Amino acid sequence: MSRPIIQSYKHKDSGFRIYELGGRKDGKTSWQVVVGRSKAGKLNRKTLPSKTAAEEWAVKQRREIKTIGNQALEFTDKQKEDYKVCLSMLSGYECNVREAVQYYVDNHKPVDANNDLAHMVDLYWENQTARFNKGVIRERTLKESKDQLKAFREDFKGRNVSTIKTKDVEAWLDQKTTARTARENYRRYIKILFNFCVDKGVMPINPTPDQDEAEKGQSASEPEIYTALEVSQVMNEAKTFAKGTESRMYIIDGEKQYKDRRAMVAYLALNFWAGIRPTELERLDWADITIRNGSGSILIRKEVSKTKSDRRITIEPNLLKWLKVYKGVGKVFPYSSATLRKWRRGVFEAAGVGHKQDSGRHSYASHHLSKYENLTKLRVHMGHSAGSDVLFKHYISLAEHVAEDASDYFDIRPAGSKVIQLKQTA
Questions:
Q1: CA-CA distance, 398 to 310, in Å (whole number)?
Q2: pLDDT digits (tens, 9 = 90+) for 118-154
Q3: Using CA of residue 127, residue 129, residue 135, residue 139, what is the dihedral sign?
Q4: Residue 398, pLDDT score
Q5: What is the rounded (10 degree) CA torsion for 113, 116, 118, 124?
């Protein structure tokens, strides 16, 4: 203290030492309260015009220390006033000052070329393209990664990826779609993107929300399946459809020709009675289907399989009949996914049966398990790993429900092969 000390004493109510200082030009004295030192070693003190003012200020400081700790000594009067204003501004919200400041900090981190979400999406796409060129992923996977993230990239470009929170992703998903499957597809690819960002060190954790509880319930519930009657109706309409021709010709294998609708029958038959995944069927080649007089098998190569591993499926006797009639060359379904969806939709609508995603595969598994009661064989046919519990979770109870239907299901054959004509019960 540069000014002379006239007297000092320890204030009883606050415990702080108060000094009376002289040396003013007007001859008056001032009163200074010392409340300790800051972390930097600087004295925390305040000079006031009177002894009463000094004692009142000392008591106020003691109360603040008791309330929020010694950190109160670091605050200037201006900071304390700002704090009061902030409290007043937040009074109508369920939020405290700390939460408000944290929100501001989280959402105002600087954005640069290394952490901008659009930049990270572009990097992820480059990585996926490199993996495709090496043969690690398929063209379809590459295309899906771009299709599913395009809108997300556009809506969040210019945003530091580390500021994106779970609630941001949930709000975006809610705004984007209410369809369960579409929402889950978006969510899955966003999660993959953010895993990539975490690996690159530009965000600490993946904020993608877990699957919605409602979606989990639907996913965990029993899969939808077709009855033998419904499959019979669909296949009858597929046979009728196969007899027709397309309205125009296409360039196929360099030649102008009509698309062969018989491919639709073979596709459906392999889905219903071999349980092959739709994506695998679009890659399956007739060269991998072996047909003998009374038996046969289907080789799902690792290049075709979703699980990247080979498996072999025994052909059911009724499926053998269908394949002998509708066998082709090259790809089982050699046309585009758009053509597949269009033809399939037409066949199901004509049959009066609603198309259900993956239900051909689910129907095969349920009826096969009911008829043969052989989990090990079915697991191989379905392409499930040895430790997978999918069959137990999804198909055990269904197999019990379709016990009376299983025999008819595997007796559905094309005309001329003792076709089983199923009649709808009243």
A1: 27
A2: 999 999 999 999 988 887 777 878 888 899 999 999 9
A3: positive
A4: 67
A5: 80
Amino acid at 279: T
What's the CA angle centered on 34, arms 33 and 35, to 5 degrees? 115
Give, for 44, the enclosing helix (H) or strand (E).
strand 43-48
Residue 81 CB coordination number (10 Å): 11
Tens-digit pLDDT profile for residues 353-395: 988 888 899 899 888 888 888 888 888 898 877 655 655 566 6
For residue 370, the one-letter residue type is S
Query: In which element (H, E) is residue 270 found?
Result: helix 262-274
Q: What is the pTM of this model?
A: 0.53
CA 315 centroid distance within chain: 36
> Which among 224, 268, 265, 217 has a CA at the least distance from the CA of 356?
224
Report the side by side order of strands in the sheet with 5-10: 5-10, 17-21, 30-37, 43-48
At residue 77, φ and ψ (nearest 5 deg) are -65, -35
Rounded to an integer, what distance in angstroms lies between the CA atom of residue 67 and that of residue 38?
A: 18
Both tokens assigned to 333:
């379904």
End-to-end CA distance of the chain: 104
Helix and strand numbers, DSSP H then E, in the chain: 18, 9
Phi, psi of 198 (to 5 degrees): -65, -45
CA–CA gap between residue 320 and residue 314 (Å, rounded): 10
Q: How many Å apart are CA 329 and CA 35, to the nearest integer?
A: 93
User: CB within 8 A of 165, min separation 6: which ones?
Assistant: 106, 207
Average pLDDT over residues 413-425: 55
What CA–CA distance (Å, rounded) separates 145 from 149? Answer: 6
CA distance 58 to 198: 51
